[in-house]
Amino acid sequence: MTPGKAYLTSEEIRTLSQRSDAWGMALVVHAWALILGSVWLFTLWPNLLTFALAVVVIGSRQLGLAILMHEGAHNALFRTRTWNEWAGAWLCGRPILADLASYRHYHLMHHRHTQTDKDPDLKLSAPFPTTRASLRRKLIRDLTGQTGIRQRAAQIAFAFRLAGETEGVSSQDLAQAFSGPVLGKALIVNAVLFGLFWVLFGWWTWFAFWLLPLLTWFQLVLRVRNIAEHGAVEKSEDPLRNTRTTLAGPLERLLVAPYWVNYHLEHHLVMHVPAYRLPKLHRMLRDKGLGERMTQANGYLDVLRQASARG
């Protein structure tokens, strides 16, 4: 059952759930335009400030691609399943070494068992709230590339292991792991990206403006996003309490929370509503008098304060 049916009429859900190919294409183009535009800006004014800005903006758009892949996994990015599958995989997932099919299986389990012992994402939210020192160590590991390198190495190791056998590998690990052929497709996409960056900006720019953001800023904002969605919330089956919406400003939406990902409570209520209609769904819920019952945070600094409130 869709949790949102307890608060919305069937007609309201039907209207909110309408998808648009034009919107889907615009979002994908927007993500890649910001990525390439950030590198172009650096080539025009090469200095430390524009380099850092490019890394941060590109890392946030890599998260944006993950979010658009997530939209494709829910068949909400485009009107047709074929376009959701193709664009979600080739234009969004594989460039960041993510696999749409594996992600969908894993993610739908999360929706089905949110904040229960069967939730495969519970390990991401269970440590919170934690101490400030613990949170600081986690964020430093992300920003310095330690988390990214470890995770990418694990992906490659799983790919070779799964190419031979799956005995001894948990179902949760299988849901997230790459097989050899899937990893191969992701590497092919990145080889194409390497060639594109080389032709447009120089051979070294793929390393500086794709691999570096992927290992650093992307990991940081991915963690912040995960914390914001389910960290330090009620461990219950109440969809208004076990998921958080973060009220993000323009700068946060640019650098931390692209493509309306901050409206996570609304997404859990009706998971097939396209991301660009989640603000409207948020307003509808508030108009129905549910604002006080909804778990919300006033920005991502507020989220981090709540997540580090222990001790």
TrEMBL record:
GO BP terms: namely: ceramide biosynthetic process
Coiled coil start-end: none
Mind telling me which GO cellular component terms the entry cites?
A: membrane
Top-rank taxon of the source lineage equals Bacteria
Keyword terms, alphabetized = Membrane, Transmembrane, Transmembrane helix
Membrane-spanning segments: 22-42, 48-69, 182-201
| Leader sequence residues | none
Q: Does the keyword Transmembrane apply?
A: yes
The UniProt record lists the keyword Membrane: yes
**One annotated GO molecular function:** sphingolipid delta-4 desaturase activity
Tell me which residues make up the Fatty acid desaturase domain: 49-288
- From the Swiss-Prot or TrEMBL record, give the protein name: Fatty acid desaturase family protein
Species name? Sagittula stellata (strain ATCC 700073 / DSM 11524 / E-37)
Q: Where is the organism placed in the taxonomic lineage, from the top? A: Bacteria, Pseudomonadati, Pseudomonadota, Alphaproteobacteria, Rhodobacterales
